[in-house]
Amino acid sequence: MKKLGLISSILFILFLSCKDQKQSELRPSHNLQKSTTETPEKKSAKFDQWVELKSLDSSFVYDIRYATTRNFVHKKMYPCSKCYLRPVVAQALYKMQQELEKKGWRLKLFDCYRPGKIQWELWQIKPDPHYVADPRKGSMHNRGVAVDVTIVDQNGKELDMGTPFDYFGKKAYHSYQKLPDTVLKNRLFLKNLMQKYHMEPITSEWWHYSYRLKEFPIENWIWQCPK
User: Fold this and answer.
1) CB neighbours of 37 closer than 8 A, spacing ≥ 6?
2) DSSP assignment string, 56-105
3) Each residue's pLDDT tens digit, 100-137
4) pLDDT per residue over 131-179, tens digit each?
5) Do 126 and 132 form a contact (C-beta atoms < 8 A)?
6) Domain ranges of the chain
7) Under a CB-based contact definition with an 8 Å cutoff, are residues 73 and 122 in contact?
8) What mean pLDDT is predicted for residues 58-76?
9) Topology of domain 50-211, per CATH?
10) Which of 51, 77, 132, 224 is most buried, with most CB under 10 Å away?
11) Rg over CA atoms, the chain
């Protein structure tokens, strides 16, 4: 009988120990990082979701048009010129830049991440989904996975792509072939380079490419500018 009592006591102690362990596993951890809506330029949980492209390589060339009035709305839309992207996209562009540098060429950026509310402003001026994404669905720019881009040579001169950036017309389409051979070759070179690193084109703009292997949400934050 004593042996049975001892065994019962041991089993009861083991039961309490397992119960305490399960309850401990179910308790929320107080060390988890809280979510935040702060901009990526501040130390927050969102910081690792964005990369300012120049932090990877200072040799990129920038002409962020919506930070100027030299765009199709003739209005300054951004507070200042900056290029933020999702890390996977920034890394892809960095690899392209390294490849181009072997030829003495570089990438030139016209637009990168675009806040969602600015997409609404553009849509009000040009509500044509061939050229401006419907803000209700959102642009790939609003998700930080699209760039408007071209290539410059060793002298900083843009390769001839047949039309300026933000040209609205058939001549800017990838399918348009009534162009000099040099232009067609330049466009194809850019397209092949971008697709090599999983950046895909759209029909109507030779300059627009986006990363589609992973989905990201639309964002509205706006970067800080130097004082």
Assistant:
1) 46, 221
2) T-TT-EE--GGGSS-STT-S--SSS---EE-HHHHHHHHHHHHHHHTTT-
3) 999 999 999 999 999 999 999 999 998 988 889 999 99
4) 899 999 999 999 999 999 999 999 999 999 999 999 999 999 999 999 9
5) yes
6) 50-211
7) yes
8) 96
9) Muramoyl-pentapeptide Carboxypeptidase; domain 2 (3.30.1380)
10) 51
11) 26
Cα separation, 149 vs 29, whole angstroms: 45
Strands ordered across the beta sheet of 199-202: 61-62, 106-111, 146-152, 205-211, 199-202
- How many whole angstroms separate alpha carbon 124 and alpha carbon 23? 55
Q: What's the one-letter identity of residue 41?
A: E
**Distance, CA of 122 to CA of 193 (rounded, Å):** 29
Contact (Cβ atoms closer than 8 angstroms) between residue 189 and residue 59:
no
CB 210 within 8 A of CB 146: yes
Phi, psi dihedrals of residue 124, rounded to the nearest 5°: -65, -30
What is the residue whose two structure tokens read 């950046």? Answer: 199
